[in-house]
Q: What sequence folds into this?
């Protein structure tokens, strides 16, 4: 049997009839029972979530169903923001197994090292091809967990996102099979499967790359022996007039993930927020821990840069002979979509342009999980895409 996938984006409020017909239609389209189901719902579905999960598992013959809530949901060539609906993906993966693992804040705090987690998962790094991760950012420190995961399962991609709920409320929901969970779920994929990743951070480098010459904790003091604020100001002033008008509030710090690069370019940096900048001291605080000797460069986030970045990454992936995806999973930042691009369906449309009619599910997240230079991070303003290929 060959791997197959089927997906559906349903727009509208909860209806038992529509949920049942969607579950049945996808199973019939698949032509075989799924190995894994991935589901994303808008916040208004939460009061009906138990019924929805039961309907999908029963009528879709889904042995393992996981997902979370999002402020918007994504399907093939379509994004629905601020509307009611759900996005459902069935994956039939012969020769591949999906192993769910729950984690919470108590486990994160009591973990004593790698042996603790390896005992909990029962899986060695050699067994795992990829992790799919969905978590509640309000109930556990996912960033702390992810840093540990990078050490235990080095080089293994984690793709997914942090659940989001109603706008401006500290609520979101994650679920596994028939019930909600309080924190996070990580699904290990083992066997005959390959996950290729596209992580588009939506920024372009500005100014010049410099070496970090003085830093304290998360504060850049000097870059290339110049005050960090001075370098930031120079990069801002060097922008064309039109870009400079829109740059305020859209400047970021990029930390190079590989020092052995002769010509740094877009995509070579882990992009992080600038938290504060002090012209009097010359210091710039960022949402990361820069190392002395690390290369950094300031970045600008705008719609054009985000479009070019995602387009370049998709074009490159589509030309690789080893990538023949049968499904995709797209986790987008809440700050993308119409808010960034001023048009609907932007990222979903680009994915469909390079991978036409690829079965796809996704959601708008509170943070996106994906690798940069084989290390997994939680990102902001990012499109994180997993492409499923059989091996």
A:
């Amino acid at each position: 049997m060959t791997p197959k996938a089927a997906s559906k984006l349903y727009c509208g409020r909860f209806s038992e009839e529509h949920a049942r017909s969607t579950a049945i239609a996808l199973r019939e389209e698949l032509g075989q029972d799924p190995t894994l189901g991935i589901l994303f719902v808008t916040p208004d579905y939460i009061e009906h979530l138990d019924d929805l999960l039961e309907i999908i598992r029963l009528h879709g013959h889904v042995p393992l169903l996981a997902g979370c809530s999002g402020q918007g949901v994504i399907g093939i060539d379509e994004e629905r923001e601020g509307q009611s609906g759900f996005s459902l993906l069935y994956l039939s993966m012969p020769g591949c197994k999906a192993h769910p693992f729950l984690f919470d804040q108590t486990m994160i705090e009591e973990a004593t090292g790698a042996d603790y987690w390896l005992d909990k998962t029962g899986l060695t790094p050699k067994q795992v091809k990829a992790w799919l991760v969905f978590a509640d950012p309000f109930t556990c420190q996912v960033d702390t967990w992810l840093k540990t995961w990078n050490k235990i399962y080095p080089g293994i991609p984690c793709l997914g996102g942090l659940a989001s709920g109603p706008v401006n409320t500290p609520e979101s929901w994650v679920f596994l099979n028939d019930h909600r969970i309080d924190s996070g779920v990580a699904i290990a994929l083992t066997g005959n499967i390959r996950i290729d990743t596209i992580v588009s951070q939506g920024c372009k480098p500005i100014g010049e790359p410099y070496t970090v010459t003085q830093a304290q904790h998360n504060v850049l003091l000097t870059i290339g022996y110049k005050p960090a604020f001075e370098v930031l100001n120079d990069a801002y002033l060097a922008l064309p007039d039109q870009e400079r008008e829109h740059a305020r509030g859209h400047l970021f710090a990029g930390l190079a993930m590989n020092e052995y690069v002769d010509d740094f370019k877009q995509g070579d940096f882990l992009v992080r927020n600038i938290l504060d900048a002090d012209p009097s001291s010359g210091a710039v605080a960022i949402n990361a821990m820069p190392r002395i000797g690390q290369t950094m460069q300031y970045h600008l986030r705008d719609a054009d840069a985000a479009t070019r970045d995602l387009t370049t990454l998709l074009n490159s992936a589509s030309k690789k002979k080893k990538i023949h995806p049968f499904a995709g999973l797209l986790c987008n930042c809440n700050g993308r979509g119409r808010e960034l691009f001023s048009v609907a369906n932007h990222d979903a449309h680009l994915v469909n342009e390079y991978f036409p009619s690829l079965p796809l599910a996704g959601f708008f997240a509170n943070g996106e999980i994906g690798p940069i230079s084989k290390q997994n991070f939680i990102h902001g303003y990012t499109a994180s895409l997993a492409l499923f290929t059989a091996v």
In short: The radius of gyration is 21 Å. Residues 203-300 form one domain. The first strand starts at residue 4 and ends at 11.
